[in-house]
Amino acid sequence: MLNLDWFQPYDGVIHSTGVIYAAICNLPRDMRFKRENMLVLGLLPGPNEVSLHQINHYLAPIVNELVLLWDGVTFDNTFEKICGHISALSSCYRCEKKANYENHKYNFAGMDNMSEWFINRNSAQFCENALGWRRCNSNAARNRFVKTTGVRWSELLRLPYFDPIQFLSIDPMHCLFLGIAKWIVKRIWVDENILKPETLKEIQKKMNQFQVPADIGRIPGKVECGEGFANFTADQWRIFFNIYATVSLWKHLPGVDKKILTRFVRICSILVGRIVQSNLMDEAHQKLVEIVKIIEQNYGRDMITLNLHLSLHLYECAKDFGPLYAFWCFSFERMNGMLGKMLTSKNILFLLKLILNSIPLFIF
Ligand SMILES: [Zn+2]
């Protein structure tokens, strides 16, 4: 949303100064007009208000940038990992845990010596290494440096308050629901034939008997489709474990998997709450540790994925950023959906009209 506003900065003399503002409509309505969220795109010095097409001289550089954004901006490969970390698949970016490379893939097994690696990485050391990366003067030198230190430079490190370890939160949506929930059900229970195709039909039948309030969300209806639990979204995994899983899965699971199920359901019910208590967060953390140990002991080291490891950091992220709903990615996913729907000619015209209407000079 753009707006051109004129005001008189001086007393006793007529001198009009203009400002072109932008508000980010992606922000909630109660946030987008806060001072810290408003953008000043241009200043028009005056002393007189510009008229008609003269405004174009001021709009041109702004439009150049908007056009660039509309086309999309590709960052240099260096910034694919925006905070300068190497892929988390080979090394956790919050603690000292390094992935094991076994059977041609990485795993994060090895809970026995947790006290040795469950230690926060050192931010100061990271920043020092990042500066070292900047001093490398060739691609080969930079590659060698990354292999040794696991660190690259990121422009974000120019922010004086930025902590490259603490400020990287784990997204609970990807970690818990698209990561662990999906992994446990599909890769362990379905692939290991604990939940067979005919069992999936029974589970679906049981779920269809549930009568839940309308605002809880759609009942997942694809349990028996495809390879099982087909195309479940993160939200459907959340709903499944919070409402349906215990009743519909209980009689189909052996003892050890019942242990995984009860712990994960409890974890989900604690972590999705709007209010979290530190003692309950502590319980959730302990249960996550137990789940990782149970899976490692019963299904092997290969089954300990990055997400299972990262879930061990959710507790400390919640301490820094608040309840999980306050920093999970569901909100961004909703924006993706909205933006996708806007890409129709009708909506683009609507957006253009909205922008033009917010610039008084364009209303002839
Ligand atoms: Zn870690």
TrEMBL record:
<protein>
    <recommendedName>
        <fullName>Transposase domain-containing protein</fullName>
    </recommendedName>
</protein>
